[in-house]
Write a structure and sequence with these properties.
The chain is an all-alpha fold and 78 residues long. It has four helices and no strands. It is globular and about 35 Å long.
Length: 78
């Protein structure tokens, strides 16, 4: 089951991927702004969302994709 915090973490990760894939400076700034918005929402509403060993930690600090971070936390290897 996806919770609100999981949804926001997933959207943050997707925005980072889009920022990295943007082929214009304007596009990169736009997606960085989207990332900043999700980051602010996470910090304001979910204390400890990026605690070491959590999905949020791997997405935010290790810059993993959401599914990759989820696999890391649940121990699923592909």
């Amino acid at each position: 089951m996806i919770t609100n915090v999981d949804y926001l973490i997933q959207k943050f990760a997707e925005a980072r991927e889009k920022r990295n894939d943007a082929n214009t400076e304007t596009g990169r700034y736009y997606w960085k702004g989207v990332m900043d918005t999700y980051h602010a929402l996470l910090n304001e509403a979910f204390e400890g969302w990026a605690t070491r060993g959590s999905v949020g930690y791997y997405v935010f600090y290790e810059e993993m994709a959401y599914d990759e971070a989820l696999d890391q936390v649940t121990g699923i290897l592909k």
